[in-house]
Amino acid sequence: MKKFLKVLTIFFMPILVITLGLEFYLRSYESDYAQKLEGLNLKKDNIQVLILGNSHAFNDVAPDIIEKKAFNLAGLNQSIYYDKRITLKYLDDLPQLQYVLISMDYHSLYFSSQGIRDVWSYYSYGIPYEDSSYFKERLSYFWFGYTPRITFSLLKTKLLDRIKNVKDIRLINGWEPLLEMEHGAFKESTINARAKYFNDLVHGSVEREMVQSDLESFIQKLKDKGINPILFTPPVQRRLTDRLDQEIMQKNAEYIQQLQTTYDVPYWNLINAISDESLYYNVDHLNSSGAKEFSQILNEKLEDYIFEKSNYDELPR
Predict the structure, then answer these.
(1) Which GO terms describe its molecular function (predicted)?
(2) Domain coverage including residue 245
(3) Considering the domain boundaries, does residue 256 fall inside one?
């Protein structure tokens, strides 16, 4: 028996050592979420504009182009559920916040969970999805949080980048720039697959009413705080939008119109603002050059809105 336990210990010792090493690595891993929170804490006293949404906003809006002090708090696959809760958690720490730009995409009203990213977001923001306790995920980042497959993929990417001498691209005030163009991004098969992903998501969703309720309460809470919520739709290539369910797009447009009327919020539909294919990373994300051009358009819209609002507020009542 003692011999068996000794062999067992020898067998499991390397696994334990590797696991502990990877746990340490993952708990200190500087994820996008960790970078955003660090940046938010550094800039919190001066932030006047927050950008929210999924990857379309995360990659397409460069805060440094905005004349007001802006910070991009959008994230990959980030839902309105998280837009709302992350913002409200840190709202009292943002004394200069005046405007919150909320990205409204084709699929924004049809999902709340970010999938495996729920727990990654939780590690930094401490916001659980619904009533999740994340007991196992807190116990082991390696086995249950990032999972071995994703952990080894992260390590492989980091190793290859070092071999190729690729410099880490850090977030710029929360913005992740995408360089050049994704390989095969504009092939018909790639575009069809992307359209199918979005159409399947909205057609299979039963969350629309819940997401709408979340969004409406978020808008109201911002307005109650004297903060101006602004809805906007970032650019998407027409070759993708033509393949999306047009009835859903019309239904979305009608709902946004209802929000404008009920809550007196502006909506900027900028889905066709960038047509030049060379400014896209793929069919629904801009590259860094496109993001800067789009952000300039967004900045002009914001400055016009501020000017018009200030003139309206000065009118005698």
Answers:
(1) hydrolase activity, acting on ester bonds
(2) 31-308
(3) yes
